[in-house]
Design brief:
7-stranded mixed beta sheet; 4-stranded antiparallel beta sheet; 11 strands
Length: 126
């Protein structure tokens, strides 16, 4: 079965940290850029970070810049999102997806995505 599986979410206090994992099953990720998205309660899903095929270029939404770090380990077929200094507004369900199409290797502003995972829930609360 071709899918991405997110894990690592949970309940954390403000200021705390979590590391999310996005593991690919049934296919390899190393030929694709990969994005993390989140959907907060009552809001639309937003893209928060991308890592290109090489791992050398990354992008972040302003809301997470300086606090979150995306990385990849192609040997483990996994992409990570290290989240530090968490805030209550970081609460939501976090998803990963691989980029597809002609520009699947890069983190361009517009992209097409596939193999969405089921998400992992992050709750930041005291």
């Amino acid at each position: 079965q071709l899918q991405l599986v997110e894990s690592g979410g949970g309940l954390v206090q403000p200021g705390g940290s979590l590391r999310l994992s996005c593991a690919a099953s049934g296919f390899t990720l190393y030929t694709h850029a990969v994005d993390w998205f989140r959907q907060a309660p009552g809001k639309e899903r937003e893209e928060i970070s991308c890592i290109d095929k090489s791992g050398r270029r990354t992008t972040y939404a302003d809301s997470v810049k300086g606090r979150f770090t995306i990385s990849r380990d192609d040997a483990k077929n996994t992409v990570y999102l290290q989240m530090n200094s968490l805030k209550p507004e970081d609460t939501g369900v976090y998803y990963c997806a691989k980029r597809i199409g002609v520009f699947q290797e890069a983190c361009l502003p517009e992209g097409s995505y596939a193999n969405w995972g089921q998400g992992t829930r992050v709750t930041v609360s005291s």
